Amino acid sequence: MNYCSACGAAVSLQRISGDERERYVCDDCGKTHYQNPLVLVASYVCVGTQILWIRRGIAPAVGKWAMPGGFMENNETPEAAASRELMEETGIQVSVDDMTLVSVSSILNMAQTHLVFRCHLDQTPEFWRLKKRSNAAGLVSTTFRGMSSLFLGSSRSCDKFMVG
Ligand SMILES: [Zn+2]
User: Fold this and answer.
1) Which of 25, 33, 107, 126 would staple 14 via disulfide (CB 3.0–4.6 Å)?
2) Which domains does the chain have, with CATH numbers?
3) How many angstroms separate the Cα of 108 from the Cα of each of 7, 37, 70, 105, 111?
């Protein structure tokens, strides 16, 4: 970060008393800017022995396969975020109560924490309805290991999911 979000002046890394880490402090108004991880949610949508994936239609990683998911919003539970992202990206509605947490992981160099949920569909979704916001969706067998085409965070948690 370069500038203070409160006053627009330059910030610099400083050590604050009682804090083990350096923090960005505004050179003008003195505001301390704490930087914390962003929380993302994603879902394994299981349909029989298959998992639903989306092929990303928007940056980053256009064309790569990923689990439906995205950033948590303020005033939203993780389950509600997972349910909302699934609806936004695929049009599939899954109740918050049917979202089960299966993994928590971090991508340290991106300062992201990923919460991954699992849910089940009783029947194959109607794919003609899935094309929303330029994402495409597809079902992939759980034995599918073409993971080089997977988007970053999806690849890591998928490996855990497959092993576990
Ligand atoms: Zn300032």
Assistant:
1) 25
2) 1-35 (2.20.70.10), 38-163 (3.90.79.10)
3) 29, 9, 17, 9, 5
Buried b vs exposed e over 98-107: b needs ≥16 C-beta within 10 Å? ebeebbeeee
pLDDT digits (tens, 9 = 90+) for 79-90: 999 999 998 888
31 CA distance to ligand 1 centroid (A)? 6
Scanning the chain, the segments in alpha helix (DSSP H) are 78-90, 152-163
Q: What is the pLDDT of residues 15-26, one digit of tens each?
A: 998 899 999 999
- How far is ligand 1, taken at its centre, from the CA of residue 11, in Å? 7
